[in-house]
Amino acid sequence: MKNYIKKEKYIHYFFFTIVSFTIFLISIFLIKFNVLNKNLKRFLIFIFSIVNLIIYFNIFLHIKYKNYKSYYNIITIIFTLIIIFIIIFGSRSIMLSLHSNTMVN
């Protein structure tokens, strides 16, 4: 039994890593420079984050729709969403706490 990844698989991973990084850089560019109005910028960043999440699920976490182990896919998706929830709302609560403790009225 051969345990190696074919060259096509490497190219596949490399391509989607570049696509994901490019989407990330475009999002940073949209946030850093005010090139669009606020609502359009939020919408584009939301769409880019959904596309990145789909890329991560399919390429890096190997969650496919045609997989026979759907139970494990659901557990993986739930675990990933819990981690994302903890990161987003934990960071938000820390930033709000820092803001309220350091701002002088």
Please bin the fraction of helical residues: over 70%
* Largest β sheet strand count, sense and barrel closure: none
Q: What is the ordering of alpha helices and beta strands? A: HHH
Quaternary class: single chain
Determine the mean pLDDT: 83
User: What proportion strand?
Assistant: under 5%
What's the N-to-C terminus distance? 68 Å
Using the CA coordinates, give the radius of gyration.
19 Å
Shape: extended
Counted by DSSP, the helix tally is 3
The low-confidence runs, each spanning 5 or more residues with pLDDT under 50, are: none
How many DSSP-defined strands? 0
Structural class: mainly alpha
List keywords for this structure.
3 helices, mainly alpha, 105 residues
Overview of the molecule:
The protein is mostly helical. Helix content is 78%, strand content 0%. α1 (7-32) runs antiparallel to α2. The longest helix has 33 residues, at 70-102.
List the helices and strands and how they pair.
Blueprint: H1 7-32, H2 38-60, H3 70-102
Concise account of the structure shown:
It is built from 3 helices and no strands.
